[in-house]
## 1
Amino acid sequence: MLNKEKLVGVGLITLLHLCFFSVCVAGQNQPCRPSSCGDMLNISDPFRLKGDPSGCGDSRYELACENNRTILNLYRGKYYVEEINYQNYSIRVVDPGLKKGNCLSTPLYHLTPENFSYDHPYAWPYDWGFRTTVLMSCSRPISDDKFIPITSCNSTNGTTSSSSQPYHYALSGDGESLQVGDLPGSCTIGKSIFSKLGAASEPGNRSMSSLQDQLLLGIELSFLQIQCIRECRVKGQSCYMDYTVNSVKCDDPNSCKDLSDDCYKPIWLKGLIIILQIIFASIYTPIIAAGILGRALLGVVLSYGIYKLRQRHISKHDTTKEIP
Ligand SMILES: *[C@@H]1O[C@H](CO)[C@@H](O)[C@H](O)[C@H]1NC(C)=O
Ligand SMILES: *[C@@H]1O[C@H](CO)[C@@H](O)[C@H](O)[C@H]1NC(C)=O
Ligand SMILES: *[C@@H]1O[C@H](CO)[C@@H](O)[C@H](O)[C@H]1NC(C)=O
Ligand SMILES: *[C@@H]1O[C@H](CO)[C@@H](O)[C@H](O)[C@H]1NC(C)=O
Ligand SMILES: *[C@@H]1O[C@H](CO)[C@@H](O)[C@H](O)[C@H]1NC(C)=O
Ligand SMILES: *[C@@H]1O[C@H](CO)[C@@H](O)[C@H](O)[C@H]1NC(C)=O
Ligand SMILES: *[C@@H]1O[C@H](CO)[C@@H](O)[C@H](O)[C@H]1NC(C)=O
């Protein structure tokens, strides 16, 4: 009789575990074949392309494929994806308005690090640095070689260029080092363009062509947020992102090391399992029940391990008993 109860108990616990485990597996993103678009092969988890099977990738990281170009819709802008690096969680995007040519084209969209909200799937980490390029129109020519003479695509027709400021220049430098205060009085500031920090422009190649190459590197954004979601939020913990090493830290100091425990996502579920285990365990072994209760009270969530041990112990016990 006791044996039957035990078996029912074990069966129920096993069912519970299997059930929660399968829920956990189903909720996780399934391994999918990488997608490709134009030159971009291996678009893989957490990214997905519009139209991929619904279980693939993460919907927060959906990209589109238009005319063989991979597109990232970011706030009000639509950017070309140039490169995805899964090791350092970086995605490099370029504004479609920027083009190589004999005049300097400008971005279609205005995007700065301030555009990014804290919880957005993408971040523009200050730690990664960026280059700022300021365009300006001047009434007199400037001989300082920091000022790169440019031909603005707007003014090639002579239509939009104001005749009082016919000289166009660009000043480019690190986010911090660019001193707009240096501006000669005869100039007015136009657009600012941000780009990835590239090779520093040597005085020898401060040309419009080099500047275009620099701007066409685009900007580098981080998708490290996905690690926060997958490693920390799942456990109800908060997360710190370190963009200098591109890794995350969950804030729970006694986070459990047992991977199987990660599957019980909500804390109430863990609690429920522990309570059920205590109830079932108390049916046959009050000592183990007390042990579990003690552990639960201590806040240690290694109950799965105990359960496994206990299960092994019980099944051995049962088989020896059942053999006549
Ligand atoms: C894409 O992935 C496959 C297999 O994972 C690998 O052989 C191939 O080199 C990768 N291609 C690129 C461009 O990363
Ligand atoms: C995309 O690329 C494929 C092969 O690389 C080509 O057959 C197709 O015409 C291209 N489509 C567009 C819209 O450029
Ligand atoms: C970034 O923010 C500015 C100011 O709020 C806004 O004008 C601009 O459209 C935003 N950029 C994008 C790409 O949405
Ligand atoms: C990420 O790695 C790629 C390839 O090694 C590199 O080009 C890129 O600059 C790196 N980005 C960051 C932010 O470390
Ligand atoms: C080109 O003209 C647009 C407005 O038509 C202006 O916003 C932009 O700053 C101009 N670009 C340059 C490089 O002067
Ligand atoms: C150049 O001028 C032509 C007509 O004179 C106009 O249709 C075109 O839009 C102009 N291009 C630019 C870039 O201003
Ligand atoms: C500057 O010129 C050197 C060689 O002259 C080249 O290797 C480097 O890429 C250039 N830098 C930029 C930003 O174009």
## 2
Amino acid sequence: MKFAVLLFVAGTLVAASPTNFTIASRQDPADLMIFVCDQMPEVCHNMCYGALCLNIGSALTFDNPSATDKRNRRKAAGCIESGGNRCSVRKGHAAGFQCDEYPFASSSPRGTITDRINRCVPAGENSKQGGIINAFYRASFCKGGPCDFNVEFSNAGNIAPCQMDCTDSDNEIIGPGSGTPAQDGDEADDGTDDDGGNPEPTGTSKKKRVVTGARHHYLTSSGVEIDIRGIARIGQRAVTVVARNTTLWDEQAKSHAYDDENDESQYDYMLPNLEVRDDVIIAELS
Ligand SMILES: *[C@@H]1O[C@H](CO)[C@@H](O)[C@H](O)[C@H]1NC(C)=O
Ligand SMILES: *[C@@H]1O[C@H](CO)[C@@H](O)[C@H](O)[C@H]1NC(C)=O
């Protein structure tokens, strides 16, 4: 008897869903933050490697962390090291790079794997990523946070880890994890971090995990094509931030004065030039 009732309820939901998918899916917390990867290929490499190759996953929570929490997360990712991190000129790295973390310091993974990783990326790409994240956090459903979202990728066809090709770690390092908290003022003046003489973390890129799950190809309502590991739902929200004037955005990103101690609002001046496309998934392409 109970079984029959359950069947009836399930049948009703299935029948109702085609006409009502938008309302239902907008209650789904796993809205999608889409990165258009030809705008920032090196940064996308880092996100894809963490999300897909190391199975940190793409499900993140923006939890409005304090400056201290963010500093500790950057340290856990390996971006705060004695005398400047590995991407700094002080450590012999070429100029113009920054230490990029995944997950973002403003966020935590919702999955079971809590590793944080880092990669040295061109500073301009890091600034573009910051501008996009800031626009997303301020937009519609997130409203300044907190909020849950999934990071997904567009135009990432030639970035190996975005295609779940994890054969080459290519400068990806897993951070030392949470150890001693970072200290106030643990920041180098050259835009990299300095933990004031604590021992160097010994990062490793060897902990590669088994990659699972097929990639699916979807189209959003404004014509953005995205690749997703797993299944997106028709009607699911997918937010893409694109520059109105890409020349201006390149200029802004290249001259951005990065401030680790400041929150995402340091990118507010980019907002007028960024179009937030509050799309939904309209079709599965393959
Ligand atoms: C859509 O879903 C809402 C909320 O569940 C419900 O109130 C509404 O009647 C549904 N509309 C249709 C056309 O089924
Ligand atoms: C785009 O930005 C550049 C650089 O600031 C500017 O020179 C150009 O006029 C802008 N283009 C348009 C169409 O506004």
## 3
Amino acid sequence: MIILKILLISILCLLLLSTVCFSYNIKEYNSTVKNIKKSNDDLYKEWNNSKEKERYEKIRAQYNKIYSFDKIPEKASNYEEQYNNILKKRDNNKVVNINITKSNYPRFYEILYNNTLEGHELFINFSESKYSGAFNEDHLELPATISVFKNITFYSEKSTIIDLAKLKEFSWFINFNFGANVQEKIYLKFYNITFKNYPNYPYLLYIFYLTTLTDNYQLYFENCKFINVKNVILNAFSCTSATQNEPQVLMNNCYFE
Ligand SMILES: *[C@@H]1O[C@H](CO)[C@@H](O)[C@H](O)[C@H]1NC(C)=O
Ligand SMILES: *[C@@H]1O[C@H](CO)[C@@H](O)[C@H](O)[C@H]1NC(C)=O
Ligand SMILES: *[C@@H]1O[C@H](CO)[C@@H](O)[C@H](O)[C@H]1NC(C)=O
Ligand SMILES: *[C@@H]1O[C@H](CO)[C@@H](O)[C@H](O)[C@H]1NC(C)=O
Ligand SMILES: *[C@@H]1O[C@H](CO)[C@@H](O)[C@H](O)[C@H]1NC(C)=O
Ligand SMILES: *[C@@H]1O[C@H](CO)[C@@H](O)[C@H](O)[C@H]1NC(C)=O
Ligand SMILES: *[C@@H]1O[C@H](CO)[C@@H](O)[C@H](O)[C@H]1NC(C)=O
């Protein structure tokens, strides 16, 4: 009997103790949660009022304009439609030579855009020793997306310098867009070109921004230089399935500083 009483009392004591402990723990837990919530709110307020947020939102808007995920089906079918139109054209295998001079360089995107849409293979010759400045386009919204359907060669005889310091903020040098279902692998080739003075975040994002629905392409750089580049040289979307084993980017005899 006595043993039973002792047992009962000790069980009661234990229950009481655990209730006290439990409510104590809840209190502590509640106050920790409160503190975390407060510091989150403070951080959020700080972020909300910062210049960083403004920049972040500009960058996000830029991405969304070019390639938000919910626009992929629309972009894919646009690409396919353009590609099918190109295949119907007769002068399909023509290679168009274009000289880029100081006077047409400000319209470089537009020249690329118009000519890729025509479906020609392009040979772009940078015929001057140096280029700089912002792009100024009449009918394109910057940064323009260049949809690529055929090979393009970017060439200069004597290692021309393309100075990127004056590009538009919150953009990139070129956004190349590759859709799926092209019959021939597409090569973008760069020979003897020096890219110089690419500024730091957050003003510009990448030199090359590749939005791709396929891996059936290759960027090939030969004798190219990247001097005083303070941001990412190349950013590519990955495709969903691998169709081949060759690399998507090759740098041959290139120099980085
Ligand atoms: C802990 O927070 C909850 C919900 O906010 C509240 O209902 C509860 O009374 C609090 N407990 C203590 C011990 O402060
Ligand atoms: C942050 O800013 C948005 C509007 O830009 C506002 O709706 C929101 O209440 C703000 N939040 C804080 C915690 O200041
Ligand atoms: C480009 O420039 C070279 C040399 O100046 C010239 O021979 C060629 O015809 C030009 N090509 C075009 C398409 O203007
Ligand atoms: C590109 O095409 C547009 C629309 O056809 C035209 O207005 C513009 O002048 C062309 N630009 C160049 C550089 O050829
Ligand atoms: C490229 O331009 C340079 C300078 O104008 C010229 O001498 C050369 O012939 C051109 N090359 C090609 C392949 O068009
Ligand atoms: C595209 O470039 C690759 C690699 O240089 C070449 O093998 C292929 O024939 C080119 N395609 C066309 C249509 O000329
Ligand atoms: C330019 O490129 C061609 C083709 O790759 C190469 O033969 C030539 O030597 C290069 N010139 C310079 C100055 O790098």
